[in-house]
Amino acid sequence: MFAGFWPTAPADDPIATRFNTVPKYVASHTLTDPDWAGTTVLTNVGTEVREIRERYDETHVIGSGGLLQTLLTEDLVDRLNLWLYPVTFGRGKRIFRDGTVPSAFAVAQPPRAFPKGAIWLVYQRAGDVVLGVDIEAARKET
Asked: Which of 28, 71, 109, 138 could serve as a FRET partner for 45 with CA atoms 20 to 30 Å apart?
């Protein structure tokens, strides 16, 4: 969808300029030869995303629940920007599926609400999940 629009967007559009000049990576089961300049198709997401994270200060995943599931399973998510919309369709894709590595996230910024009811939630990775109370540690503190 992005590749069908942004390369032909007006040259003075700052979003188009940004999207058309940054490196882009696509995880796909079918695409092998992308038309959009600066686009690389990933064939081994776990390995290649680790290399991308080492190369760049910041990376973003836009619009792919399937890729997000893979990144969560591979323990490659540092920050979640979740958009909650007040619409239900009955059935849909699960974001956190079996195989997701248990990870703790903390609120990174206050939630932001929009006029039509959407809410933007931002969470930053906060280490490992802590379940229950460590009885021995609690006894040592008293």
From this structure: 109
